[in-house]
Design a protein that fits this description.
About 50% of the residues lie in helices and about 20% in strands. The chain is an alpha/beta fold and about 400 residues long.
Length: about 400
Amino acid sequence: MRPEDLLNDDFLKQFNNGSELTSFIEQLHKRGVEKILEGELDAYLDYDKHQKSKANNLRNGYTKKKLKTTLGETEIQVPRDRNSSFNPMIIKKRQSTADGVENVIISLYAKGMSNIDIEEQIRELYNFNVSTSTISRITDAITTDVIAWKNRPLETTYLIVWMDGIVFKVRENSKAINKTIYIAVGLRTDGKKEVLGLWLGKNESSAFWMSVLTDIKARGTQDILITATDNLNGFTDTIKTIFPNSTTQICVVHQIRNSCRYVVWKDKKAFTKDMKQIYTAPTKEAARAALKDFKTKWESKYSYAIRSWENNWDELTIFFDFPVEIRTIIYTTNLIENLNGKIRKYTKNKLSFPTDDAVMKSVYLAVRESTKKWKMPIRNWGIILNQFLAIFENRIKL
């Protein structure tokens, strides 16, 4: 019989108000949990209640336990065995919260709330107390998930991998120092985005990125068609060392920011307007002509900006070699910077982290929250896939 047949209109009409219905649901949940526990013990002892058994281990009554759930706090009867070896799966020994509450705690922690704030929130929402030590135990269990996630196998081929770093303050030897979480996001051959991993190191450097790329390769990735990065010194050479056939596009938005860094306010509007003619040109040849005009006008005042464009020209203009649909997703690392912005949003309440594990746990949970909607292929995926197949036909296996 289906649940909707049992909970029909006539049955529900017997409740005079919401409190009576809530009380019924709480009792139903309590009895359901207790019956599941009885079933678990039946399976564990290999004989049903009220049956005789010649086994050495037998039933041994019940213990009372207070259980905290999203419905509130309730007292349940937990069956026990004579050898005290039975450890039920639904409510484990020494566990006082059901999965629903644990998920709420993890979600609140992922959104940047402190343990004390979570304690208060749970008290207000569900009218029972969860100690900060219990909250720490629940969130610490995430460390196992982080390790498994960081070591999971990756796709053989990624069409694009965006890479960037985000800086956090972590306490070390009684001082808060800057450390970088290195993030890589890949575009799979099914058109969906995937965070490949999180790596913690000191200030961002091409040397550390080599260890990141080595890890990505060790976990099964054999080829990356295009990488999109900032213009970190030596980054392109580092990528070529691990993935020699990869095409590297330096982020144009990073280049614009770096070029404008020392431009005086009265020149900035005209300067950025002229610079825009370079990266919005229809072809690489037109972009080169726009750079020449830009140089003629501004070199005397901002020669360092001109040199930066010229020195990074090949990697800055890779996107001109591709159709418009691919250009728009590789000429900038905005995709990963948007992810970084969401991570910042979830971690903004934490001015510094006590340990490396703490910052990794928080960022992992923030990533998990931020990527929940990454279930569909990127826009114009059909067109983009066909373009990739035409350009890289020998390197893509669907």
